[in-house]
Amino acid sequence: MDNNSKKVSKPPKFTFPSDRGASLLIFVLSPVISFFTAIRHYRLPSSRNVIWFFVAFYGLTMISGVGNSDSSRYREVFLNMSNSSSLSLFSDVRMDIVEPLISFVISRFTSNYHILFGIYGLFFGYFYSRNIWSLLDIVKNRVNKKGVFLLFIFAIIIGFWQLNGFRFWMAAHIFYYGGFKYLIKNKKTGLLLIVSSFLVHFSFLFPVLVFMVYLLIGNKIKYYFLFFILSFFISEIDLGQTQKTLVSIAPRALHYKISSYTNEAYAEGLTLEKENARNWRFKFYPKAIKWSAVLFLIGAYYTSRKILPKYLLNVLCFAFFFMGMSNLASLIPSGGRFMLVSYLFVFGFSFIISQGKFNSEWMTKIFYITAPFLIFYAMGVLNSFLPYFGFSVVTNPIVLLFYNSDTPLVDLF
Question: DSSP string spanning 302-350?
Fold first, then answer.
């Protein structure tokens, strides 16, 4: 027989099991391994759900008593609820009812705060995973190296470890999820999600109003660009007058919240806390992503705006407007957090651009210019969340039935 006619048999190529049962088995044995496996095999239908349930598992194991963190207050209020027979949900009138409602319901069944944070993680993880895969679903081909890096930055802007501040960051992911649905897919349910975000955190009335104004104005990109540039020249504002103005026009239910978030003593306290607790890396890494986002937006304006399809032009216009408004809001204590929400739109847009025909030589150059700064930003972010990781995160759900350690993972090294 002719040797050329012989077929050389090759060993079968290993592929990760695609069935849900295998994914579930790996998760039960090691959620951490399943997390990285899901990232590696992101095209599998089960991958997004693995990330979703990993965030819930992280919530079960999260260290909730780090300093004066929001999670410490959630835990304290929850324990008070669980020890009380009162059916009263709130001690004051409020609009953001989701977090206290969840806490109240869980407190009727258990006083274990780990379960509370696990439930928080279940809600948070759903929107976190869906926001990441909403971008991946747009890209039909394999994601290139630039896209992998930009998606990584997108994923850590408001990472799952921000479960520590559940109310605000959960609202942020809901707002982005709704905004993406409406701007990219023109789904009216996106508007309902956008509006519902303020039920999770009252301050999201601000981005909701910004979005409504955007809908009224439409895609006037030149005006948005000019406003965006102008917002960076505003450096001084009378904080006391801002408080009086906001209180005068806001509903009574928001007066206490506005006063506490805008008073000058609170501003000085935040500044002092940052100066005492953070070294130079923590002072500069937020600026690294801010100016990277600015370069991406300006680059897109000058090189891509005339060739973008409508759905991408929607995102670019809103990103300009929202980042400009967030830049103004950052002059008020705690208002700077909206900058991170605006970055989701900027880097979501940048990821999509990097994968298609709408990319340009200048956008590629901007990517390589900003990459070192974004790496610096990533180092700062990853360093800041480590204290919230408990040792039990490297175990599995079976072990948690018997033991859940409150020892931070970093204390073991």
Answer: HHTTTT--HHHHHHHHHHHHHHHHHHHHTTSTTTTHHHHHHHHHHHHHH
